[in-house]
Amino acid sequence: MGFRCGIVGLPNVGKSTLFNALTRAGVQAENYPFCTIDPNVGMVEVPDQRLRKIAELVQPSRVIPAAMEFVDIAGLVSGASRGEGLGNRFLAHIREVDAIAHVVRVFEDPDVSHVANQIDPLSDIATVDTELALADLETVERALDKSLKGSKAGDKAQLQMACLLERVRVWLDSGAPVRSMALAQMEQAALKPLCLVTAKPVLYVSNVDEHDLDGGKGSSVAGVKAHAHNFGDELVLVSARIEQEIAMLDHQERGVFLNELGLAESGLDRVIRAGYTLLGLRTFFTAATKEARAWTITAGMTASAAAGVIHTDFERGFIRAETIAYDDFVELGGEQGARDAGRLRLEGRDYVVNDGDIMHFRFNV
Q1: Phi and psi at residue 261, to the nearest 5°
Q2: Long-range contacts: 133-138, Cβ < 8 Å, 24+?
Q3: pLDDT tens digits, residue range 90-114?
Q4: pTM for this one?
């Protein structure tokens, strides 16, 4: 379990270049609109130094990191919600992802055309946001009509749904995304079948020049940051061109190159960390001589539910979870050291898994 992130934005902002760098997939990334029509999909290993440290202690036969999926979705244009630029197909792809990575062009390059012939990140964001909101508005209005018909027949559930949908319609009509609405958990669940694209969490990826990775682009980056902050979204600065170069290097060369650029980590690392924060994801580990593995769960998940991520039988026949905190595991030299020091805990099915827990599940089916 990881998360599926759709990369969106206007044409020629660097979406496919970023996708190629992140996944090393080598898909088309040409300098003209609609180069990407069918979405490209790539699986990416989640870098986690904790798994490397666990593997050093356990010496397993194989090491399996967590994974996430990137979907490179074709560039949206003004009118996409009405089908412009094959917009309907693109919007359908966006509905299928867990989160949206909205690539915004901040870099200047006369050799790479811009669909609006100017570099204006906030204007680009407004174009995409408007099209997504219009698509959601159409979806909500259709659902509202259906609920109103049901409520006239005396269906109280449909009346409640109609009231909720009317609130959402007014909110969207104001230009705000659904994710910024104050919705109760039951209301969120009621809206989930509609797959509203503006309800999805957004990670803004500012595609900047190499020398602006420290945020030195000034008002352009600051404007994107302020916009993201207004809606509780995340922002990461990335140079897609630099990420392409990094992707071609081996591990040692990559470290040297990043040091030369004054960077502690690659754009991939920053994107994944921001995505995990955005979606409230956590990682637990299993560690044995056969295999050391990272597993992705949502924050607040219980031990029995986490066991089910590995296999449904583990959850169904859950007995207990032998659990060691990551810091204890490393400090005490592994499982045996933690056991001898009394740091191995037996947890029940309702135990809330902490980020970094090393777990061994006992079950009986």
Answers
A1: -85, -5
A2: 133/172, 133/175, 133/177, 133/198, 134/81, 134/82, 135/80, 135/81, 135/91, 135/197, 136/172, 136/178, 136/196, 136/197, 136/198, 136/199, 137/169, 137/172, 137/173, 138/81
A3: 677 788 888 999 999 887 776 665 6
A4: 0.80
